[in-house]
Design a protein that fits this description.
Distance between the termini: 22 Å
Radius of gyration: 22 Å
Order of helices and strands: HHHHHHHHHHHHHHHHHH
Largest sheet: none
CATH superfamily: Amino acid/polyamine transporter I
Shape: globular
CATH class: Mainly Alpha
Number of domains: 1
Helix content: over 70%
């Protein structure tokens, strides 16, 4: 079912042409990336017990599931484009919404550049077009996925579903190959007390951070609430089922790696799952893992281009960005917003300026989820009659617990690197003059 065409007196609307499969593809495809190939080595440096390693990854999925409850309640109740921007704008007003949208947009565009550069490096690792610079390959990927999105929402949605399916199948194949291989050396016995399996407090904190970041992206479905059929049901299904599938896959990947390598061997590896595959597959592992990486990176960039263009569109429609950016093409793509996202991503990729942003954006991604948790609480009291097709249980305790988890993660990140925290704070307030200027020029929102 599609929405009515835009008229001169109605705000621009996106087309409701995506389904539950796309929603699952967004969550699964947005979460699973190259991080799971490296993260097990970092986690094993903090936790030396195989059982506790698997438990830590399962708890990471549980933490994501906990935070998803307030997010799904708010996202299903406010089925509008823009994800965390739309929710925080509804709960706390345009200024808070603008800051949330700005940080999300900046994170996506910088991440697009970073991932595209890694894509170029992977292409060279396969021995393809070695004469083409990595920056050119990175820009080519951004242009390519932007071209797919330009065609229309159905095409970009189908490409995301296919990319995520290929990625998931490749990881399951890798897990099967590792489990079929002979078991590696038995792990050394660990002490029964807490200090034995946990190597140090600092290493444990780093393990928690890495697990959290490896699960990042589970909130992707809400960015397309305006375009998914039956968002009152499918936003919840896509988010919860997607987190569950990713959690199972991550535990399986770690169990498969531990089947081949000991925790001590994992702890010394910067590319743990790749090293495990190399033990089993030999030199063919490099080609297999690199090819997996290429599909994974393409799917993530495609998703982030889609999501970031929806954030720009939503902010423009609400009047906190120039309204000409809210134009929607016949195929459902907000093309002007897409061009802005693609242009910024290309600038970041070509200049290498994304590196500074990547180093400081960790607190933002956690902060966006924290803001949604707080928004869900506020909306329960400010709009008690709002239609909520899915309600979190044990309100407000689930939302409070999720908020405390996110706040604790921000504290740990900032305490671990105060300078990063300072720069993150400065970036938060940097665009406020833009909001002031746009309000002066076009103060009245549409609709």
């Amino acid at each position: 079912m599609t929405q009515p065409s835009e008229t001169p007196h109605s705000p621009p609307q996106l087309l409701r042409v995506l389904g539950l499969v796309f929603g699952l593809a967004v969550v699964v495809g947005g979460v699973i990336g190259s991080g799971i190939m490296r993260a097990p080595g970092v986690v094993a440096q903090g936790v030396s017990s195989p059982l506790l390693i698997l438990l830590a990854w399962a708890l990471g999925g549980g933490s994501a599931m906990l935070a998803a409850m307030p997010l799904v309640e708010a996202g299903a109740s406010i089925p509008r484009a823009g994800g965390t921007y739309a929710i925080s704008q509804r709960a706390f007003g345009p200024s808070v919404g603008f800051i949330n949208g700005w940080l999300t947009w900046l994170q996506y565009t910088a991440s697009n550049a970073f991932i595209s550069v890694v894509f170029g490096e992977y292409v060279h690792r396969l021995g393809l077009v070695p004469q083409v610079p990595v920056a050119v390959l990175a820009c080519a990927l951004i242009v390519g996925v932007s071209g797919i999105n330009w065609i229309g929402t159905k095409v970009s949605g189908a490409s995301q579903s296919i990319g995520s399916a290929v990625k998931g199948a490749a990881f399951l194949l890798l897990v099967a190959i590792l489990f079929i291989a002979p078991r590696g050396a038995a792990p050394a016995p660990v002490a029964s007390g807490l200090i034995g399996p946990v190597t140090s407090a600092a290493a444990l904190v780093m393990a928690i951070r890495v697990i959290y970041s490896t699960y990042a992206g589970w909130d992707g479905a809400i960015y397309f609430s305006e375009e998914v059929d039956n968002p009152d049901r499918n936003v919840a299904r896509a988010t919860f089922w997607g987190i569950g599938l990713v959690s199972v896959l991550y535990v399986l990947v770690n169990a498969a790696a531990l089947h081949v390598l000991t925790p001590a061997q994992l702890a010394g590896s910067k590319f743990a799952v790749g090293d495990a595959a190399h033990v089993v597959m030999g030199s063919a592992a490099d080609t297999f893992i690199t090819a997996m990486g290429l599909f994974s990176l393409m799917a993530i960039v495609n998703l982030q281009v889609m999501a970031a263009s929806r954030v720009t569109f939503a902010m423009a429609r609400d009047g906190v960005l120039p309204r000409w950016l809210s134009h929607v093409a016949k195929g459902g793509t907000p093309r002007r917003s897409l061009l802005v996202v693609a242009g910024a991503s290309l600038i970041f990729a070509a200049s290498g300026s994304y590196e500074a942003i990547i180093r400081i954006y960790a607190p933002w991604s956690v902060g966006a989820i924290l803001m949604v948790c707080l928004s869900a609480i506020r909306l329960r009291y400010s709009e008690p009659d709002l239609y909520r097709p899915w309600k979190m249980p044990l309100f407000p305790w689930i939302a409070i617990a999720a908020s405390l988890v996110q706040a604790s993660l921000i504290y740990v990140m900032v305490a671990d690197d105060p300078w990063m925290g300072l720069w993150s704070g400065l970036v938060v307030v940097a665009p406020l003059p833009v909001l002031w200027l746009v309000r002066r020029l076009k103060p009245a929102p549409i609709g």
